[in-house]
Amino acid sequence: MYLPKIYEQFCKEYPDVFAQYKKLGVACREAGPLDEKSQNLIKLGIAMGVNSRGGVMSSTRKAMNSGATREEVVHAVMLGMTSTGFPNMMAALSWVEEVISQK
Question: Is residue 100 a contact partner of residue 74, using CB atoms and an 8 Å limit?
């Protein structure tokens, strides 16, 4: 799995901070009733909303690894068009397609 170099560097330089960050992420995921696929599609929408290329790509991989189809991922991105704008949606769609083409 691809991890950005800055991410790997941060993990090495601040292992305690990263460990606590991961614990928080697990706690948030376990705090409610949503299944893993739904959580990953929601996180994809959030990443799109903040125009995060890395977040969109990571969430796309996680969503597909948890059972989401290409159509479900694309639909999740399309739903953001009226909230985040057409250009932002198109950028996110290009990042999704980049991930899918690497599979």
Answer: no
